Amino acid sequence: MHAKSSQEGTFLSETNKFVPTEALGPADCKGLAEVLMSVGDKWTILVVGALSKGQLRYNEIQRRVSGISQRMLTLTLKRLEADGIVTRTLFPSVPPRVDYELTELGMTLRGALVPLHRWAAGNRQAILQNRAKAGS
Amino acid sequence: MHAKSSQEGTFLSETNKFVPTEALGPADCKGLAEVLMSVGDKWTILVVGALSKGQLRYNEIQRRVSGISQRMLTLTLKRLEADGIVTRTLFPSVPPRVDYELTELGMTLRGALVPLHRWAAGNRQAILQNRAKAGS
DNA sequence: CAGCATCCAAAAGGATACTG
DNA sequence: CAGTATCCTTTTGGATGCTG
User: What is the pTM of this model?
Assistant: First the structure.
């Protein structure tokens, strides 16, 4: 592989808001893209957001993330479970009950997603207006 | 447990930053999804990241965001321009030169994306290992 | 209730060729 | 250099029907 820089995330200028420098090497891009592709997904972001308040049952998630189909919810949850972002707990009752909950890793992801949620909420109108203006 | 008291209050996350518990109504979900779908896109995140250091020419961006095709770069830049996140500056020289740069809005987006970048960089290994373990 | 399997339509995206 | 246009494959995702 490429020369290992020992740590992938070497841009720990936590003190600086704007990480102005070369945080991402060209090689890191691919690795990041890999993660961002699964985590930056629309449904993923919304499902993680829904679970941020605590564990939820399958149908509860589907109700909160309005518009998600059964298929996409299942696929998203399976991937999140495989990635170690949520846990799946089955209660062998009748009818069955399954709870999903963020893991520690999932909580940190949620934390990293909060600014993006906020940004989207705060700038949605501006973007839609820009978009409309550009379309003219 | 999470008190699901009457209305949304605030929720103390593990990382101790107080996070507003979903100020997102079910209706807002759709609106947010709309923004997140375009902004939470894989290439968008990487292109905005590349531009965070300052303006770049078309080909410079393509070189930095390795793996992106000409088509996707063009489409991504057009959308970002329409959304008011980047500016496009054409220098009518021969050969032509085009610079792309983040707008103020783009800078704030970049700020909101930093935690996600850092999370992805810091947890990539953990995720890949989880995924491999789950796959076995 | 909580899924899985299947089919099919739509969208995303890469490769290639061409242009000002 | 910085795109545009086209083709065509891959992926995404909804709808539906069926299980434990």
Answer: 0.80
